[in-house]
Specification:
The chain has 14 helices and 22 strands. Helix 8 (274-291) crosses helix 11 (360-372). The strands form four sheets. Strands 1-5-4-2-3-6 form a six-stranded mixed sheet, sandwiched between helices. Strands 17, 18, 19, 20, 21 and 22 form a six-stranded antiparallel sheet that branches. 51% of the residues are buried. It has helices spanning 30-44, 61-74, 87-96, 132-145, 163-173, 193-200, 238-247, 274-291, 308-315, 327-337, 360-372, 378-383, 401-412, 456-470, and strands at residues 20-23, 50-55, 78-84, 100-104, 113-119, 157-159, 182-187, 211-216, 251-255, 262-265, 271-272, 298-302, 319-323, 341-343, 349-351, 357-358, 389-390, 394-397, 417-420, 425-429, 434-440, 446-453. It is of the alpha/beta class. Residues 393-467 form the Alpha-D-phosphohexomutase C-terminal domain.
């Protein structure tokens, strides 16, 4: 391939720590994507191997998938186009087929964006520390020299649909056929859950389960005409909350754009925190592992999840391991520890049986199983896993983030506390009544506060004290 030479390419604006993201037509184009596809093959040594390429419902994803495939084939890889897929479908395919792959998605970002998430064979993550920087550098070289050199033998491009195999695999991991009947509202946000939900939980490809599914925004539409596909923002849950109440549903599920995260709403329309979901799924996975003969199953949780999670894990006979925030850290520790499950406060849930990768759908199935095997409502079930009160994440826009943290440290230094610096600064009362974490953003002028306490009054007191210091 010959590239028109009229500018110098610098891809640092779109290559992030864990993936590629940019504005379509500006920092991510078909020309750039083709060079990245070629570099992907060379850096990972995939000439002559099969690679998997898919994309989400964004308008540019099909063109980008073909461009990446062409770059990969030019460098001698055989490409299987997976067509429309969720991100966890890519992880499934990379694991089940033991092949490296890429999917085009910008997850919850606005419609103007697209990006690339890449994985090695076995769904092993690719980050800036494990090949992404090298892929960027080689892609820039191809773009700036104007040529992607052809391999001796050009690879072939074919098509492979994994939706049914993915759906069957998830159903083997969590058997929902014996559940009591449940009414479920699912908000796909016009994202990929509009494709995967009917396949996994409905009767589109597999036998019907005892569920009535009420769909919200299942139409695949990368312009996101109803609301952004980012359930982390409370305003994007309002339609789901209203629909759960209107239909008298047992549960509501909200997925982000590429469907690798899942948020849960109870029958009263109230959110069930990702920490509570982590605890709920951890309990099930510990019990299953113990039944299979595993003495002390390991559960991973990041440092912003509720302290209820490690307490529950210990009570159930497991071992909790605390990590930094971020999926590359979680996946690495999952592999090192042989952990059965991991959860993050951001609603990413990781499973050993899913190649240590994150999948929103499998987490949702565990919650449905837990709800469906007992008679009580989700609000009662969830309360068992939320004994503490959380502030949620609060951002303060300040330039001198280190100075703000130091003001807080000085103010709290006379208290009976522990401070650790695993990820930001975590202040913990030795009597167990509260903790809070301050984390500086690496990319924005934000200092992020997360606080948790034994009751609402204590949480508000700590939250307001810290914010007053930070914003002084």
């Amino acid at each position: 391939m010959t590239i028109e030479q009229n500018k110098t390419f610098d891809l640092s604006a779109s290559f992030k720590a864990y993936d590629v993201r940019g504005i379509v037509g500006e920092s991510i184009t078909a020309e750039i994507v083709e060079a990245v596809g070629a570099a992907f093959i060379d850096v990972l040594g995939l000439e002559g191997e099969t690679v998997l390429v898919g994309g989400d419902m964004r308008p540019s994803s099909p063109e980008f998938s073909r461009a990446f495939a062409n770059g990969a084939a030019t460098r001698g890889a055989n490409v299987q186009l997976l067509d429309l897929i969720s991100t966890d479908e890519l992880y499934y395919a990379c694991g089940a087929l033991n092949a490296a792959g890429a999917t085009f998605t910008a997850s919850h970002n606005p419609a103007a964006y697209n990006g690339i998430k890449m994985a090695k064979a076995g769904a092993q993550p690719i980050s800036s520390e494990s090949g992404l920087k090298e892929i960027q550098a080689l892609a820039e070289q191809y773009l700036n020299t104007g040529t992607i050199p052809a391999a001796v033998t050009r690879g072939e491009i074919g098509v492979h649909d994994v939706l049914k195999d993915y759906s069957e695999y998830l159903r083997k991991l969590v058997d929902l056929s014996g559940s009591r009947p449940l009414k479920i509202v699912v908000d796909a946000g016009n994202g990929m859950a509009g494709l995967t939900t009917p396949a996994v939980l409905g009767d589109k490809l597999l036998p019907a389960l005892p569920f009535e599914i009420i769909p919200l925004y299942f139409e695949l539409d990368g312009s996101f005409p109803n609301h952004p596909a980012n359930p982390l923002e409370p305003e994007n849950l309002r339609d789901l909350q209203a629909a759960v109440i209107k239909h008298g549903a047992d549960i509501g599920l909200a997925f982000d754009g590429d469907a690798d995260r899942c948020f849960v709403i109870d029958e009263k329309g109230e959110p069930v925190s990702p920490s509570a979901i982590t605890g709920m799924v951890a309990r099930r996975e510990i019990a299953r592992a113990q039944a299979a003969g595993e003495e002390t199953p390991v559960i991973i949780h990041n440092l912003l999840t509720s302290k209820a999670v490690p307490e529950l894990v210990a009570k159930d006979g497991g071992r909790a391991v605390r990590t930094r925030v971020g999926h590359s850290f979680i996946k690495a520790v999952m592999a090192e520890e042989g952990a059965v499950f991991g959860g993050e406060h951001s609603a990413h849930f990781y499973f050993r049986d899913f190649w240590n990768a994150d999948t929103g759908m499998l987490a949702a199935m565990h919650v449905l199983a837990a709800l469906g095997e007992q008679d009580g409502p989700l609000s009662e079930l969830g309360r068992q896993y939320e004994p503490y009160v959380s502030s949620g994440e609060i951002n303060s826009e300040i330039e001198d983030k280190a100075g703000a943290v130091e003001r807080v440290r000085v103010d709290f230094e006379t208290e009976d506390i522990d401070i650790d610096h695993m990820d930001g600064s975590t202040f913990t009362a030795k009597d167990g009544s509260w903790w809070f974490n301050l984390r500086p953003s690496n990319t924005e002028p934000f200092l992020r506060l997360n606080a948790e306490a034994k009751d609402q009054a204590t949480m508000e007191k700590i939250r307001d004290r810290v914010l007053a210091l930070v914003r002084a």
